[in-house]
Amino acid sequence: MIINAISQAIENIKENFSVTFSGIITTSVSLILIGIFLLIYQNIIHISQLYFQKSHYSVFLKSEVSKVNQQDAIRVIESVWGVYGINLISSKQAAQDLLEGFGEARKLLEKVELTDIPGIIEFSIDRPEPLNNKELNKINAIPGVKEIIFGRETKDQIETFFAISNFIGIFLVGLLIVSVTFIIKNTVQIATQIKEKEIGIYRLLGASKWFIRLPYILEGIFISVFSYFAALGVIYFLYQFVIAGITYNEATYQIIHLTTFFQIEQLLILWVFLIVLGIFSSILATNNIIRKVSF
Amino acid sequence: MSEENLIQYIDIEKNFLGKKPIFTDINLTINSGEFVFLTGISGAGKSTMFNLLLGTETPNEGRVIYRNYDVHKLPKRKIRHHRRSIGMVFQDYKLLTNKSSRENISIPLKIANSSKNDIDYKLNELALKLNIEHLLDQNVETLSGGEQQLVAIARAAIHLPDVILADEPTANLDQKMALKIFNIFERLNAEGITVIIATHDIHLIKSHKKKTVLLKNSGLIEVR
Predict the structure, then answer these.
(1) Nearest CA in chain B to A196
(2) Going along chain A, which residue ranges are E strands?
(3) B198: which of A282, B38, B44, B218 fits an S-S bond (Cβ 3.0–4.6 Å)?
(4) Which chain A residue's Cα is nearest to B88?
């Protein structure tokens, strides 16, 4: 049955080449859009995670903090996994840094007495995830620690960003998957409509539903697989083109070296997923004609 | 039911969309190995009798028994097996005109999932028997009406069905070709296949002494 179905599918594709070809083109375009989105999304997540790994924290100290408390705070921070580059900035140094931050306008502030600028303990972490709440609470509990500002805010912002990205991503990918399903379904359905008389004769002669369906399922798989490789080729070419086109400077150098293309495992999963989608769409497409010619 | 009885139409009534019934109270038994002419004027219901047996139409009343089962009580998934045991020669041939005779004739075997070797063997054997080897590789749309009818008969017979139903097989054919077609049916019948021919060709019926059933006035008369 399978050999017969393969030869039937090849024949169908040859006979309805223009329909199949336009189906492949439209499916490929949708897959290119999905692929580009997934690639951008994947790289944003990847770069953001790398940023997290190297993220900086600033522990603001109370103005009345004692030297002992400062040393306690440094000791606790040192004990946290992945912490490196601890740097204590005194309140005097912090005031100096603040003034320098104003540039030319600093002259206006030179006569102002900056007495309430807190000391800061800066540090970085090198690990896949940011400081968790338990670790943050442990540092916050040290006498003399006012608050840890930078880390928490960044964590919240990035978590919100990920949540929104995930929502938009799932919605868009879902929308495109539905459209790919309908494109394949419609292409196969046109092919079945062209062959309606033939399918009717097969049914009259005792063909099973699956005997009729199988060539069209193979056609659906052919459309999805061919579109997959076409889209993959285009996306890879675009990726290389964009990377090659970015002007190298200190900022873009980092980005270029952090971006990644799809991994083999991801491509295999997408490939299998598309085959399943091709089968599903073709079954949907053949349901109509089988219902119509079921005497 | 005796083993001889292959087909039984029992108390059949059939009408279309509430119109006057084309049959009422039809009873007919056809035995295994019989050769039967089913005749009547156009619209008498000859094709409908075949469709009832194929299961493509259902009776309003009555039952159609094939071997030992009621055709219209078969589950959907079994109706295809029932149809595979019948060879049907349609009035309009129902051939795939864009395919060769070989492809058309082999359809029932492909449907039954026969191997390529088996298909080739049976096809060549039948083609030799029906003297249609020269037609095998020709596209059906290039064949004459008579040749297309030969291909349709070959398709109906390739899987050695229990019964062949032929709907007006000699219509639009000249006398010579009609006789050739009839002789083929006789040969198939001689091999044990039950043959039922629906025809209004009186000349054909009169010239061959076969069981003849006439559909007339919504009923059925066995003439011979």
Answers:
(1) B96
(2) 56-61, 83-89, 120-125, 145-148
(3) B38
(4) A205
